[in-house]
Amino acid sequence: MVLKITRILFRLEYVCGLFLFNKKKETIEQKKTIESLDTSMMCKFVLDGVGKKLGESVSIHDDILIIKSGSRFLGVPLKHVEPVEKTLIVKGLIDFTKAYELGEKWRKESYREMNQHDPPAEKSKRF
User: Fold this and answer.
1) pLDDT of residue 126
2) pLDDT tens, per residue, the chain with 127 residues
3) What is the pLDDT of residues 5-14, one digit of tens each?
4) d(CA 100, CA 107)
5) Would you give the DSSP letter of residue 72?
6) What CA–CA distance (Å, rounded) separates 65 from 87?
7) Distance CA 76, CA 2 (A)
8) What is the side-by-side strand order in the sheet with 45-47?
9) What are the distances in angstroms from CA 92 to CA 35, 50, 51, 99?
10) How many CB atoms within 10 Å of residue 37?
11) Rounded to 5 degrees, what angle do the CA atoms 80, 84, 90 make?
12) Using one digit for the tens of pLDDT, what is the confidence trace for 59-83?
């Protein structure tokens, strides 16, 4: 009886271990593909379909490419962006109101401006 219970426990451990390790491998592989995609699309000029410069890519948030256009940020889905040599081209028509909304949402969540005119919090005095 004890032998049967130990066999069952070993089998459960083996089966559960396989499932747990397989899921971890899949997420690691997915992260690697996202990271490689991120680095290849960063800091490149972004053009629309006509060839007009929209701005420069600054970040990728989920499946949205963040473009800095002047003082504003645009968000364009990655499925509409095509890498061409040293630039990125946005395929199709761009809905600028939606792009501004996505860019503004990203800015509020993760972008922090540094202001050079703010006084430092505390300075330590050295003798």
Assistant:
1) 63
2) 666 777 776 665 655 554 445 545 545 554 444 444 556 888 999 999 899 999 999 999 889 999 999 999 999 999 999 999 899 999 988 899 999 999 999 998 886 665 666 555 565 566 5
3) 777 766 656 5
4) 10
5) E
6) 13
7) 61
8) 72-77, 64-69, 53-61, 45-47, 87-90, 81-84
9) 25, 10, 12, 13
10) 14
11) 25
12) 998 899 999 999 999 999 999 999 9
Q: Degrees (nearest 5) of the Cα angle 61, 39, 115?
A: 60
**How many whole angstroms separate alpha carbon 40 and alpha carbon 83?**
8
Cα(14)–Cα(6) distance, rounded to whole angstroms? 12
Amino acid identity, position 77: P
Q: Would you say 77 and 69 are in contact if contact means Cβ atoms under 8 Å apart?
A: no
Closest CA to 50 of 89, 13, 9: 89
Residue whose tokens read 């968000």: 75
Q: Which residue has the tokens 């006509």?
A: 50
Q: Is the dihedral of CA 42, 73, 110, 30 positive or negative?
A: negative
